[in-house]
Design brief:
heterodimer, A: mainly alpha, 1% strand, globular, B: alpha/beta, Rossmann fold, 6-stranded mixed sheet, 4-stranded parallel sheet, 43% helix
């Protein structure tokens, strides 16, 4: 091992923040519409022609920022939920958030056409997002109430309740899918594969504050999550208000995930793989895990989205396909390497 | 038990509660970044190679059109406007020789706004139903005219659409007249075929099957475009109990007792032809299958209600008559 003096070490988040900056730079530069650097800078300053200004400010930038926010949100909450359940395989899906969002998004997709077609199109489009967000909060609340007995929340009960609610919501979703026509089915399929194609500043304005404030609160509870590793009783003895902290984590997770996937649709794998990658490298210290997951999740989704909008141009690839396609093999490779290393030891 | 396994958290938990800051941590970070750099490079490479070819200096003032509907595309070609089209959606399949060479923009509800802007269109034609899709609103704010065209399931549809297009494009009136004449001739031909048929009083019962592999087989209800086309061709829709496309049980399939099964060629191909169709439970027991009356026609031709709608109806009418003998 190295004998370098400790004084010169860099903070853990710095390389990842730099990486995120580089990824953001790449994302702004690449795209199906070719812009040379000079035009890009002009457009960023609003000095290029109308179309190029629009392209950069209304199409590319909101998408880049949204990818950062959503990627960060998914990964941070993934880390927090893994801490809450004391299980590295946990995901926000486990507390019913995703299934609720999906059921309500599908409800909106199926019924907005038939029942609410008189609404203006702008509101119709928002209806899917609003509905998905409401669904995410509703199912999480149900799961939480089931697990909450006289102020004591059983993590195991919560997990099982989450699975039950997920199955129930899945059944209703299945029913709606069965009754949907070809066009609705296609919309539903696209929603479950996720996409950042519709990114706009309104979505950023909704998701960014929720994700940032939520991540701040999750980070504040990082020490408590570390204490959870010892067991809940031990955490209580260490002076943590466990019940309160658990509730706080569930609420912020539901808000962040709800906000993010209500605008993008389902994006799998980020919440599971990113905290895990960080954990493989820096160990299970939530003080680092939460923040580093945020940075790496943002970087990962940014790069995945850059691929999604260029790889099959002029068409568009749903990003959920890419996160799994790039993420899963990479993850398996890391696991295999980890195994080999521990066998070698 | 999985729920409480701490196997993974092998780090000494107690040390996590105090501040740790070791150099090896940082080193790991750096190594880990090295893994991510190839991914970033991949993004760069893929995108730089994928720019659509564009020739900015040629044909300066010429219109550039994008069509996001198969019938609109077909109509634009038949009106002689095909060479102005710079991109089409996934449903634009006719004329195949021309549309195959154009950039395919995918499905209208999943558009790549940047890529469309890169094609530099000034007019985008969509169906009135699709006009409010998310991506289109963005294109509208980018200053591109997004023009909704009403598409209805009638034999005269294309002439009406041509008039709508003429409001936005410089289409010579005689071109539209030519189209209307050709379509009127097709309709007359259809009528003469149907007149021949009057002798047999009973209408042929036709079941339209929409298939995408054996996993998803739907039949057309009574208010679908398929039912409309069947009626135009002098047949009657075998399904009268529901409106839309629905999955059907083998028993109801037998009960519907269609004389003819009508399918898209692509649908029949997805079942591996007639033999595969027979494997679908209930199909083998229908009179249509037993008498080998399975008709397959191209999707855009049969149900696009484009300029060839009259021809398609005539062809179907002739096939229905032939099935009765």
């Amino acid at each position: 091992m190295s004998v370098l003096p400790k004084k010169h070490t860099i903070p853990a988040w710095l390389p990842l923040a730099l990486l995120l900056l580089i990824a953001a730079g790449i994302s702004v530069v690449v795209g199906a519409y070719e812009l040379n650097l000079a035009t890009l800078i002009d457009a960023l300053l609003g000095r290029a022609d109308r179309m190029e200004n629009f392209l950069v400010w209304q199409v590319r930038l909101p998408r880049v920022v949204l990818a950062i926010v959503v990627g960060g949100g998914l990964a941070t909450t993934g880390a927090a939920v893994q801490g809450l359940f004391r299980n590295p395989l946990a995901e926000p899906t486990f507390i019913g958030i995703t299934s609720g969002a999906m059921l309500f998004a599908v409800l909106a997709l199926v019924f907005s056409v038939t029942l609410f077609s008189w609404l203006p199109p702008a509101i119709l489009q928002l209806s899917v997002s609003i509905s998905a967000f409401a669904g995410a909060l509703l199912t999480t609340w149900m799961v939480y109430s089931i697990a909450n007995r006289r102020g004591r929340m059983e993590v195991t009960t919560m997990l099982l309740a989450g699975i039950a609610i997920t199955a129930l919501a899945g059944a209703f979703t299945g029913l709606l899918i069965y009754k949907s026509d070809e066009e609705q089915l296609r919309d539903i399929t696209f929603w479950t594969l996720g996409s950042l194609a519709g990114a706009n500043w309104l979505q950023v304005a909704v998701c960014a504050p929720v994700t940032l404030i939520g991540s701040y609160f999750l980070q504040r509870d990082a020490l408590a999550l570390n204490a959870f590793l010892l067991g809940e009783r031990e955490a209580i003895h260490l002076g943590f208000k466990v019940a309160k902290i658990k509730r706080r984590i569930v609420i912020w997770t539901a808000l962040i995930i709800g906000a993010c996937i209500s605008v993008t649709g389902l994006i799998g794998f980020v919440g599971l793989i990113i905290p895990h990658l960080i954990r493989l490298r820096v160990g299970t210290d939530y003080r680092k895990l939460i923040l580093l997951s945020l940075l790496l999740g943002a970087t990962f989704l940014l790069l995945a989205d850059s691929l999604a909008r260029t790889i099959v141009a002029p068409a568009e690839l749903p990003i959920g396909i890419l996160t799994a396609m790039v993420g899963a093999p990479f993850f398996i490779w890391l696991l295999l390497r980890q195994n080999r290393k521990s066998i070698g030891r | 038990m999985l729920l409480h396994s701490n196997i993974y958290f092998s780090t000494n938990s107690a040390t996590l509660l105090v501040k740790t800051n070791t150099f090896s941590d940082r080193l790991c970070q750096l190594r880990f970044i090295a893994i991510f750099i190839p991914l970033a490079l991949l993004v760069g490479c893929v995108s730089s190679g994928d720019e659509p070819a564009d020739s900015p200096d040629s044909t300066v003032a010429q219109e550039k059109i994008i069509s996001l509907n198969g019938t609109i595309t077909e109509l634009l070609y038949s009106l002689g406007y095909g060479d102005r089209i710079v991109g089409v959606d996934v449903t634009s399949t006719y004329p195949a020789a021309a549309t195959d060479t154009l950039p395919k923009l995918g499905h209208v509800s999943q558009l790549n706004v940047e890529a469309i802007l890169a094609l530099g269109p000034n007019k985008i034609f969509v169906t009135a139903e699709d006009a409010s899709k998310e991506g289109l609103q963005k294109l509208r704010s980018a200053g591109i005219e997004v023009l909704p065209i009403e598409v209805v399931s009638t034999l005269e549809n294309s002439a009406e659409m041509a008039n709508q297009l003429a409001a936005h494009l410089d289409i010579p009136q005689q071109q539209i007249q030519l189209l209307e004449n050709a379509m009127a001739a097709d309709r007359q031909k259809l009528e003469s075929v149907l007149d021949r048929k009057v002798a047999n009083a009973k209408k042929t019962k036709v079941l339209f099957i929409y298939a995408r592999g054996t996993g998803r087989i739907l039949v057309a209800g009574k208010s679908t475009e398929a039912a409309r086309m069947i009626e135009l061709a002098g047949g009657e829709n075998a399904i009268t109990t529901f409106d839309d496309f629905e999955a059907i049980t083998p028993e109801s399939l037998v009960a519907a007792a269609p004389d003819v099964i009508l399918m898209f060629s692509s649908g029949l191909a997805s079942l591996d032809g007639k033999q595969g169709l027979g494997q679908v439970p209930g199909i083998e027991q229908t009179p249509a299958y037993q008498n080998d009356n399975v008709v397959a026609m191209d999707g855009q031709y049969l149900l696009g209600f484009g300029p060839r709608a009259g021809q398609a109806a005539t062809e179907l009418a002739e096939k229905l008559i032939a099935s009765n003998k």
